[in-house]
Write a structure and sequence with these properties.
With about 800 residues, this protein is mainly β. Helices cover about 10% and strands about 40% of the residues. The strands form 16 sheets. It has a four-stranded antiparallel sheet. It is globular, with a radius of gyration of 29 Å. The two termini are about 35 Å apart. The model is unreliable at about 570-585 and about 790-795 (pLDDT under 50).
């Protein structure tokens, strides 16, 4: 249903003059829908939700407190919320009121914080369909199709006009690491960690041939410019860091037979590139034993003989590409440089400084290069002639593959979050900086304070942040570990029941802070140990910790003194002995009366332990995968635990299993609401479902939020994906507060403020005459008779 709408938008934009006053608004709406088109296609009722969460935040005044200016500063016209003209947020508020009147209290997931990337920057499309990270991307030579390979062992072929899936290719038995179209666009080649190389019909997805059924892991595939040969780079390290096979294999695509193997390299291959005339094949390598460090070697494709080697990089070369004229070779390396070489002599010519390069793609005209860095998490677009960067793209997750389209208009990236992101390479708007955790550093932990007014978050960037749960804004940075301890981050986090203290594991030590002053109150030393789980007792006097040495320890939360060690968790018995928990503890929870401790272990078991006797009460089984969060219900009668794909609730007294829920969610919420599932969330694949009063989802959100926590009393939720913290409210039960209005008969005696819904009720009840005056700002007034339905004048 949504794809014809997108075609209408495209037609409207094509027909509108560039200076049309509403073209900007139409283009932004088109961008917003394209971002979530696959999600909307699966959940058609979320169209308004997706528009609100992107468009309302584009230019509403509330957005200002969430951003810092872009690196190059705001444009001359200022940020969107300060610009004049028609406002998107006003349009969305009118739509909301229309929808609220038609469907009162309709449920939807309303974001209380702007999206990671605002509208109006480099336009992008999000392609969803894979069920694991996307490792390979490639455009067809005419740009009409995009192929993607994934760790879900499939290849998807997408139509680049509608961005719908044309075919799904199945046959590989491991991660698909490389996909490439033949120059004529009729065939598609793929390689995998299973060692096989397969050929598919590029239109139907039918398997045409298997060039190799098994062998070393395939790293990359490249067709020769005339399409007659297919080159395969392979190789992998074995347990002793020796290589099983590091050869370049060449197949004749007319006969599907192997014609040449280039061997004797002694190192796995990262990337391959054919020279435009098809005579030479350049290969970059994953590891070098040679002291002269020739990270790139060029081979004669006809004879397999070495032509030359390139020296100069100081680390692994991750990408290599020839310019279209064949005179220059471009390489990108983990040493943080992109170098340009003379393709005939191997002489070094120029260098661009970057973050450590993880992926590289050259534009078809050879003038621009797109470089991704795992260090920065960004994609840098640079002009090779001017030797300068001109734009930065911000992918939503770690990037595994990168490709320019043949016309140079699009850049596609395969990402860690199962998505493919496609950017318009012609737009270069740099987004403002959204205040929060560092861009390339994942959020690890979240928790609400007991009163629900604050949220605490910990990230790989070493920051412990405090947020306002009502507005989604940062209140304070409690601690920045990276400023004092390189590489440290908080890996376990818990707030005390009275909301006054916070405990966190910082690696070999557990710290307790006063939330009112952010001062450190106590420190528990745990040499050579990390805490997998933390829990305060109900009186906040004691802190229970599950440590990586397989022990559960109880500490005085005021002084940091160790009080008790529970021996059943490894303090004595070895793995497999009576009383030992195999594989160590993954998480813990303490009952409200502080009499029981629930812990999870790597053998997929939940253990209940008596604190006073220090003995096992019972074991709870049922999960088949590694266990995560565990929690007691508020009355202590139930305990819930989550794994990778399900959640189970047990009765504490009997050990009876009360229920199983498919999906991943918040264990505390599930333990409290096993019968109603009120205010809970479940993650399915790339989406999050919000559960309100029944086991059926009340609303959906287009991002898999992990971790995610539920507000203690309101239908609100806080979750994270990559570095971004999302604050969600279940609209209907907790809808937006639209701007208040005022009303008067003579502009002198003014009543209000009232919400638009309340104003509508006054009009419909007859308590406010139709000739009354209404206003948003008490300066510009409108006759109430101008209000039709629930549409308001655009004051």
């Amino acid at each position: 249903m949504i794809f014809p709408v997108l075609q209408d938008f495209a037609a409207a934009l094509a027909a509108m003059p560039s200076q049309h006053p509403r073209r900007r608004i139409v283009a932004l709406l088109d961008e917003a829908i394209r971002r979530d088109m696959h999600f909307i296609d699966r959940h058609p009722t979320t169209l308004f939700q997706c528009l609100w969460n992107s468009c309302w935040w584009y230019d509403c005044p509330e957005a200002a407190k969430h951003y810092e200016p872009p690196a190059r500063g705001w444009p001359a016209s200022g940020p969107p919320w300060d610009q004049t003209g028609q406002k998107l947020f006003r349009m969305l508020e009118r739509c909301y009121l229309d929808k609220e009147q038609a469907t009162p209290a309709f449920p939807w997931a309303r974001s209380l914080r702007p999206p990671p990337i605002p509208l109006g920057c480099a336009r992008h499309i999000l392609l969803l369909g894979h069920e694991d990270f996307v490792e390979a991307v490639a455009f067809s030579s005419d740009g009409s199709r995009l192929a993607t390979g994934s760790a879900d062992q499939t290849i998807r072929i997408w139509d680049t006009e509608s961005w719908t899936t044309l075919a799904v290719c199945r046959g590989h038995e491991s991660i698909v690491t490389s996909v490439v179209f033949a120059p004529d666009g009729k065939r598609l080649a793929s390689g995998s960690w299973d060692g096989s190389v397969r050929i598919w019909d590029a239109k139907t997805g039918a398997e045409l041939a298997i060039l190799r059924k098994n062998g070393p892991r395939v790293k990359c595939l490249r067709y020769s410019p005339d399409g007659r040969l297919l080159a395969c780079g392979s190789g992998e390290f074995d347990a002793d860091y020796r290589h099983a096979d590091e050869a370049i294999h060449l197949w004749d695509m007319g006969t599907d037979s192997e014609v040449r193997v280039i061997t004797g390299i002694g190192k796995p291959i990262n990337d391959l590139a054919w020279s435009p005339d098809g005579r030479h094949l350049a290969a970059s390598y994953d590891f070098m034993y040679d002291e002269d460090r020739e990270w790139v070697l060029v081979w004669d494709a006809a004879t397999g003989s070495r032509v030359m080697g390139l020296k100069g990089h100081n680390n692994i070369v991750m990408g290599v590409a020839y310019k279209p004229d064949g005179r220059h070779l471009v390489t990108g390396a983990a040493d943080g440089s992109v170098r340009i070489w003379d393709a005939q002599t191997g002489a070094f010519q120029a260098e661009l400084g970057m973050h450590a390069v993880s992926h590289l793609s050259l534009s078809p005209d050879g003038r621009r290069v797109a470089v991704h860095s795992h260090n920065s998490g960004t994609i840098q677009l640079s002009d090779l002639d001017k030797k300068e960067s001109h734009a930065t793209l911000y992918p939503p997750a770690r990037v595994h593959a990168l490709a320019y389209s043949p016309n140079g208009c699009w850049i596609a990236a395969g990402c860690d979050n199962q998505s493919v992101v496609v950017w318009d390479a012609q737009t270069s708007g740099e987004p403002p900086v959204l205040i929060g955790h560092a861009h390339n550093e994942r959020v690890l932990l979240l928790c609400y304070t007991p009163n629900g007014q604050r949220v605490l978050s910990s990230g790989v960037d070493g920051q412990l942040r405090e947020w306002c749960a009502e507005s989604g804004t940062t209140v304070d940075v409690i601690v920045d570990l990276m400023a004092h301890y390189t590489g440290k981050s908080i890996r376990a986090l818990v707030c005390s029941p009275d909301g006054k203290r916070l405990a966190g594991d910082v690696g070999e030590s557990i710290w307790v802070w006063d939330l009112a002053t952010n001062k450190r109150l106590a420190e528990m030393d745990c040499p050579e140990c990390s805490a997998w789980g933390l829990a305060f007792t109900s009186d906040t006097k004691r802190l229970v910790t599950a440590l990586s040495d397989k022990t559960i320890r109880i500490w005085d939360a005021n002084t940091g003194a160790q009080l008790t060690v529970l021996p059943q968790h490894g303090d004595g018995p070895e793995d497999g002995a009576e009383g030992a928990l195999p594989g160590g503890i993954t998480s813990i929870a303490i009952s409200p009366d502080a009499k029981l401790i629930a812990s999870t272990t790597h053998d997929h078991t939940v253990w209940l332990l008596n604190v006073e006797t220090r003995k096992e009460v019972r074991q709870l089984a049922g999960h088949q995968q590694d266990l995560g969060e565990i929690a007691f219900s508020l009355d202590g009668q139930r305990v819930a635990c989550r794994s990778a794909n399900s959640m189970i609730v047990w009765d504490v007294e009997t050990g009876q299993r009360l229920g199983v829920v498919k999906g991943r969610g918040n264990a505390q919420a599930l333990a409290n609401s096993i019968t109603t599932f009120a205010r809970s969330t479940l993650v399915y694949g790339t989406e999050t479902a919000i559960i309100q009063a029944t086991s059926e989802p009340a609303a959906w959100f287009p991002v898999a939020l992990e971790p995610i926590v539920c507000h203690p009393s309101r239908p609100r939720f806080t979750g994270a994906a990559a570095n971004h913290v999302y604050f969600l409210s279940l609209g209907g039960a907790d809808g937006p507060a639209i701007e208040s209005w005022f009303y008067s008969l003579d502009r002198r005696q003014i009543s209000g403020p009232v919400t638009p819904v309340e104003l509508r009720q006054l009009l419909e009840s007859g308590n406010l005459p139709r000739d009354a005056l209404v206003s948003r700002d008490r300066h510009k007034w409108y006759p109430a008779s101008r209000i039709r339905g629930i549409r308001w004048p655009d004051g």
